[in-house]
TrEMBL record:
This is (R)-2-hydroxyacid dehydrogenase. Keywords: Oxidoreductase. PANTHER family: MALATE DEHYDROGENASE, OXIDOREDUCTASE-RELATED. It comes from [Clostridium] asparagiforme DSM 15981. SUPFAM superfamilies: L-sulfolactate dehydrogenase-like. Pfam families: Ldh_2. It is an enzyme of class 1 (oxidoreductase). Belongs to the LDH2/MDH2 oxidoreductase family. Its EC number is 1.1.1.272. GO terms for molecular function: (2R)-2-hydroxyacid dehydrogenase (NADP+) activity.
Length: 349
């Protein structure tokens, strides 16, 4: 799958390394059963690329570089290109200063926040990343029209014997991508996910797409979304508020997304091995809680995704037929050959 998706982005004008990076970020999300940020995004990315909303030759550049901090101009490159550049910079600065704060402008949709925070784990660091959302998708608490992004963020914290603890969440009850998947598969959604254009809860994904997403924890989630958006975009001068474009609705240039990347070098404060062992003890303590009715066990943030990744890397990634058909149509439009494994599967034929 990764090679097929990579070939599509090559056909759309990206170099091999960049095409592979974007493909990896999308297939990685699918492997972790986060289908909202997987290959179903290829259709959106393709539309933005072919509408010249993304700079195929874009190259992120550091415009402010002071000690542990930096501001990066993404040059309207693919969000994954900007995200990888910035997280690597954050890790580099954390090695030198113990902590880092790198913010970007001129970026685009970069996929899952956790794709970048997990990079810090390879260096025994704690990673953090956040991004302005794909448009003003939520009304501020007490308001009636959408003026705030759902502004997702992620933390990644290493452990020893357990999976790392990786929290990745938007400030809406669900990411808009999950409503998109429900729309494409003609599936109902819980009435807690979104409001229709009249402000009423809806189970119809199509009506939800016309309305707004609901914030988590009501006023608390709304407040967190507001602050995260400010941290991502106000320092870097990325898009926010009236300048924030809709990733699905505005095709008149780049998104100028603001994003934030931080890393913490654990070794500056304590022995890394000791830290990981303490993490394991806390994880054990939390998981020892008796499971509630209709619950198999207690899971830590990111644990289900890691389990899914291990399983699907062994048995293969399960995809909705509708998504495979969509990718097949996109690939065919660029003359990208269908992979042999798909032909043999008979899916959609």
């Amino acid at each position: 799958m990764k090679a097929w998706i990579s070939d599509i982005f090559r056909a759309e004008g990206f170099n091999g390394g960049e095409a592979e990076l974007v493909a990896d970020s999308l297939v990685d999300a699918d492997a972790r059963s986060v289908y909202s940020h997987g290959i179903q995004r290829v259709k959106l990315y393709t539309k933005r690329i072919m509408s010249d909303c993304i700079n195929r030759e874009g190259c992120p550049v550091i415009v402010v570089d002071r000690d542990a901090t930096a501001v990066v101009d993404g040059d309207n490159a693919m969000g994954q290109t900007v995200g990888k550049f910035c997280m690597e910079l954050a890790i580099q600065k954390a090695r030198q200063y113990g902590v880092s704060f790198v913010t970007a402008r001129g970026s685009n949709h970069y996929g899952r926040c956790a794709y970048y925070t997990r990079m810090a784990l390879e260096y025994d660091m704690i990673g953090f990343s956040a991004t302005i959302g794909g448009g003003n998708l939520m009304a501020p608490w007490g308001g009636t029209d959408s003026r705030v992004g759902n502004n997702p963020y992620s933390y990644a914290i290493p452990a020893f014997n357990h999976y790392p603890v990786v929290l990745d969440m938007a400030m809406s009850v669900v990411a808009k991508g999950k409503v998109d998947v429900a729309s494409k598969t003609h599936s109902p959604i819980p009435d807690t996910w979104a409001l229709d254009q009249n402000g009423f809860p809806t189970t119809d994904a199509e009506e939800a797409l016309k309305g707004s997403l609901r914030p988590i924890a009501d006023y608390k989630g709304s407040g967190m979304a507001i602050v995260i958006g400010m941290l991502c975009s106000v320092i870097s001068n990325g898009a926010i508020g009236p300048t924030l474009k809709r990733v699905y609705g505005d095709f008149d240039g780049g998104l100028n997304k603001g994003q934030l990347f931080m890393a913490v070098d654990i070794s500056r404060m304590t022995d890394v091995q000791v830290f990981k062992e303490r993490m394991d003890r806390q994880i054990d303590f939390i998981k020892a809680s008796p499971a509630a009715a209709n619950t198999e066990e207690v899971y830590l943030p990111g644990e289900l995704e890691y389990r899914s990744f291990d399983r699907q890397m062994k048995d293969g990634i399960v995809y909705p037929v509708e998504i495979i058909q969509e990718i097949r149509e996109i690939a065919g439009g660029f003359g990208v050959a269908e992979p042999e494994w798909l032909k043999q599967s008979g899916v959609g034929q």
